[in-house]
Write a sequence for this structure.
């Protein structure tokens, strides 16, 4: 009986998981405030990133994000970037028809780099 209830619950979750409009938004304000006291170069990169994300040009944001992540980051900046990248990933997954696989893979690479994982060379 427990199995039947579990399967019924799984069916309901599966049916209704895709319902509703995508509501994930990327919080660019948190990223900007985390880098408010950063160097002029980092602030310029953040400005470029925010502009690209606001115009839904995630591909243009990947290069400055990689440069920003490669630099020295405080723990608050690292946390803001982690949240920012997660939001970007959610938007890409929710809107797969609007973003290329290169954007998806680029974001995954940046998350790994931010976590300290070495880049994969194939």
């Amino acid at each position: 009986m427990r199995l039947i209830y579990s399967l019924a619950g799984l069916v309901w979750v599966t049916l209704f998981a895709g319902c509703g409009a995508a509501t994930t938004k990327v919080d660019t304000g948190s990223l900007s405030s985390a880098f408010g006291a950063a160097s002029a170069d980092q602030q310029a990169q953040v400005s470029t990133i925010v502009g690209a994300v606001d115009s839904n040009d995630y591909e243009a944001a990947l290069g400055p994000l990689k440069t920003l992540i490669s630099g020295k980051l405080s723990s608050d900046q690292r946390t803001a970037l982690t949240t920012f990248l997660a939001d970007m990933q959610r938007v890409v997954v929710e809107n797969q028809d609007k973003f290329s696989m290169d954007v998806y893979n680029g974001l995954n690479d940046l998350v790994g780099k931010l976590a300290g994982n070495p880049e994969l060379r194939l």
Remarks:
- The radius of gyration is 18 Å.
